[in-house]
Design a protein that fits this description.
The complex is a heterodimer of chains A (337) and B (272). Chain A is mainly alpha-helical and 337 residues long. Chain A contains 13 helices and no strands. Helix content of chain A is 69%, strand content 0%. Chain B is built from 12 helices and no strands.
Chain lengths: 337, 272
């Protein structure tokens, strides 16, 4: 997603510097329906792709959990137990039709994938949501701060730092944070201890994982915010506002930011996927009780049904967020695009 | 923006070049064997092991020197394959709108798949795939993003008069792609290659950290971080040194990519 692909359709130019009045846009139901339908179709295609990946690559759940010296008959028996001997299309239909009802299939060890994820996934969503909020707040604040003095020292420092951190893997950031904020200063706990109900024991245990996730994402999003603001600042209605002598921060909040919002939202929405992916990594470091720990044991067992289930859930969440971004874009840009 | 001179560009590319050479030559510089213990587990830095020992008492410095080559080579391979694939697909998409729409649709679908989960999915469904599976998955997941950039750059060239003239003259699709359009995209493709290399370092390192790429006892920076994190209090260097290596590699390559990118391509903020 680049800022110049999403056309910044700003509010119409006004002759006075006053806040542009926008006609209240009621989204026609058909339009919303079309957007929802498009996202749903894309998600269904992704789920089919996920199932086919697991299916078409060599090796299945039965061989993956096999132990040394196990006979072919044992393997065959477990294959039947897991239903792997049935035709692909039949299992595909079972898996896909089970998804809407919350049935994610069976892991290689014979447990329900839904049970494995029922406490872990909400924890990951909490962590990812927190990181998304932090990312949004930080990148908006830094991007606007830089935009107020274009070309100045702050602007250059923010751009340079953003470019530097966006390439850092989350686990490298996490190691640095643990060293500084936990081992050397002792301010924050280095690992997350889960309560009896499987949730993180203390809110301070959320800070380090959320920060480790946020830093690289702020790197991406500050650049998007800054570029979107720069694009919008060239619009004629902004020039008018500046010529009218409005103070810079008012021009920014009332004239530049509204037009840049669709691009910024789209950028943040695409961050959701990276946040969920990064969460898997960060959770392993901090021992956070989310899908990361489930996946870590799935990696040892080479348990692809679990990964397929997690991917299905993540795809659904990302679809939801992208759908929200679509609707925000339509709301702010009007129905005509 | 002031015109950047060759000197400043070279200055930004130099750290990456140095680090890449060091990573490639590292295995020959290692003072000890990477798989034999030389000190006590998590030994503090001493005379025979400058950066101390890891969880099995192996020399951290030797493993650090040996652990970058595969990461760099895999990432380079991924970046070359993704850039090449995206360039060809994007150009075909620009010349043949129907193919272009299909590619766009596929890209839309794959955007819903977090790259890390995609890599886990492929590597685990592909037993004994190891590093090869990671490379295959990273290529498959990288192309959709790169195609958009390539198609965007190819569109104006594909619509230009001389390409239309060649097409009207009955030139075949491959000739148009390889001889008419792609040579004009050199600058964009170089920038794309830099970005994809940065992204590939991220993905290959993350796969190593999740233990789906190189397997122990291989020396690999990401794997070292994972293996030694429980001993971070005893010998921090066993974790800090590979973390710093990955961090510096990512930063310097990113700096170089930004310096090499053409002015027109720099405004496009692409997400991994």
């Amino acid at each position: 997603m680049s800022p110049d692909t999403a056309a910044p359709a700003g509010p119409p130019p006004t002759t006075e510097g006053a806040r542009p009045t926008r006609a209240p846009v009621l989204l026609p139901l058909a339009r919303v329906g079309a957007v929802v339908l498009k996202r749903a179709v894309l998600l269904a295609m992704l789920l089919a792709l996920v199932f086919l990946t697991v299916e078409l690559l060599p090796g299945d759940a039965a061989t993956a959990t096999s132990e040394r010296g196990e006979s072919g008959a044992d393997l065959q028996q477990r294959r039947e137990l897991l239903g792997l001997d049935r035709p692909v299309l039949e299992r595909f239909w079972d898996w896909m039709s089970g998804l809407p009802t919350g049935d994610l299939g069976t892991s290689a060890r014979g447990e329900k994938v839904t049970d494995l994820l029922s406490t872990a996934f909400p924890n990951t969503l909490l962590l990812g949501g927190l990181a998304l909020l932090l990312t949004a707040a930080l990148s908006l604040a830094l991007g606007c701060w830089a935009a107020l003095r274009p070309g100045g020292r702050v602007d250059r420092a923010v751009s340079a730092t953003a470019t530097a951190v966006l390439a850092l893997p989350e686990f490298v950031v996490a190691v640095a944070l643990v060293l500084v904020l936990s081992l050397w200063t002792g301010w924050l706990p280095a690992v997350t201890l889960a309560d009896a109900d499987g949730t993180p024991g203390d809110w301070t245990m959320l800070i380090l994982p959320a920060l480790a996730l946020t830093v690289p994402q702020v790197g991406w999003n500050v650049r998007i915010v800054r570029a979107a603001l720069a694009d919008e600042a060239r619009a004629p209605h902004v020039e008018t506002a500046v010529l009218d002598g409005l103070p810079p921060h008012r021009v920014l909040t009332h004239h530049v930011l509204p037009g840049a919002l669709p691009t910024i939202t789209a950028g943040l929405a695409t961050s959701t996927g990276m946040l969920l992916g990064g969460a898997v990594v960060v959770e392993t470091i901090f021992n956070y009780p989310g899908i990361g720990s489930v996946l870590a044991s799935a990696v040892t067992d080479r348990d692809s049904p679990v990964i397929a289930g997690v991917t299905a859930l993540a795809g659904a969440v990302i679809t939801g967020v992208l759908l929200l971004a679509d609707l925000v874009r339509d709301l702010t840009a009007g129905v005509r695009r | 923006m002031t015109p950047r001179t060759w000197a400043t560009t070279a200055l930004r590319v130099l750290p990456a070049a140095f680090l890449l050479c060091l990573a490639l030559a590292g295995p020959w510089l290692a003072p000890h064997a990477i798989d034999a213990p030389v000190t006590a587990p998590y030994a503090e830095p001493g005379a025979d092991a400058v950066l101390g020992g890891d969880q099995l008492g192996r020399d951290v410095l030797s493993r650090l020197l040996a652990g970058g080559r595969d990461l760099v080579l895999s990432s380079l391979l991924v970046a070359v394959l993704v850039t090449g694939g995206a360039a060809v697909l994007g150009t075909i998409g620009a010349l043949r709108p129907r193919v272009g729409r299909l590619v766009e649709q596929l890209a839309d679908v794959l955007m819903l798949l977090p790259a890390v989960l995609g890599i886990l999915l492929v590597t685990l469904s592909w037993p004994d795939g190891g590093r090869f599976a990671v490379i295959a998955a990273a290529v498959a997941l990288g192309v959709p993003y790169a195609v958009r950039l390539a198609a965007g750059a190819a569109a104006p060239v594909a619509a230009s008069g001389y390409v239309e003239a060649a097409a009207a003259g009955g030139e075949r699709l491959w000739y148009l792609v390889l001889r008419e359009v792609l040579p004009n995209l050199r600058a964009t493709l170089l920038a794309l290659f830099g970005l994809r290399f940065v992204a590939a370092v991220y993905l290959v390192a993350t796969a190593g950290f999740l233990q789906v790429g190189p397997q122990p006892p291989a020396a690999d920076w990401a794997l070292m971080i994972r293996e030694n994190s429980s001993g971070i209090l005893l010998n921090p260097w066993a974790v800090v040194a590979p973390s710093a290596a990955i961090g510096l590699l990512a930063l310097s390559v990113n700096l170089a990519a930004a310096a090499l990118a053409p002015q027109t391509g720099r405004k496009a903020v692409t997400v991994l």
